[in-house]
């Protein structure tokens, strides 16, 4: 099965919280494929971030899709609120839900696409029996909770296993990586099998600006992917 062309998805975690609408507009103008909201509850991870009302207020400023990465305990209680806020993709952590298959199925019932995230220590076997309910698997390349962390190269072996698992399943499932993604690290995860790349701190601080940063990341990811394995057409997020 051909891999999808790479998608560049910024995290808004480094954004100026006082001007989130304008920040979202800037990201859309830079040519991103969708935008990720890192939702943290101060329990599953130490940080505390965006609620659904904030995301809903920013949604009208966007021309691309939103994804909510729920780094929270008991995510089932919040799924509907983030879908209603305008998130077309909702990601839950395998470590945070007891009945993962049921949770992923519920996300789809609510009308969104479903994603499951794995912390660096979590084996890929955890998702083997829920792939039929997942539209995306996220391999965390840092420990979740804070921006600006260093990329963990060892996760690339996990990404390779996920790519094999997805291809053997025959399902169309994205493989996303999140954490420490820069122009220097994106090639390793792309070569391993990822096709969606979250970038936050690096993209916001890129000297050439966000548009040039998005273009550079996309070029580096494409170059690292085997040409025969990448779909010709860009995807619409």
User: Looking at the structure, what is the overall shape?
Assistant: globular
Side by side, the strands of the main sheet go 1-8-7-6-5-4-3-2
Could you tell me the mean pLDDT?
94
Radius of gyration: 16 Å
Unreliable runs, pLDDT <50, ≥5 residues? Answer: 232-237
- Quaternary: single chain
Approximately what portion of the residues adopt beta-strand conformation? 15-25%
Reported for the largest beta sheet, the result is: 8 strands, parallel
Order of helices and strands: EHEHEHEHEEHEHEHH
Q: How many strands in all?
A: 8
Structural class, judged by helices and strands? alpha/beta
Please report the number of helical segments.
8
Helical content (DSSP H or I, runs of 4+): 25-40%
Distance between the termini: 19 Å
Structure description:
By secondary structure, this protein is α/β, with parallel strands linked by helices. Helices cover 32% and strands 19% of the residues. The chain has an eight-stranded parallel β-sheet. The relative contact order is 0.18. The C terminus is likely disordered.
Tags for this model:
eight-stranded parallel beta sheet; 8 strands; 237 residues
Summarize the structure.
The protein has 237 residues and is of the alpha/beta class. It has eight helices and eight strands.
Summarize the SSE layout with pairings.
Layout: E1 7-10, H1 20-29, E2 34-40, H2 52-59, E3 65-71, H3 79-84, E4 87-93, H4 100-109, E5 113-118, E6 136-140, H5 155-169, E7 174-178, H6 186-192, E8 196-199, H7 201-205, H8 210-224
Helix pairs in contact: 6-8
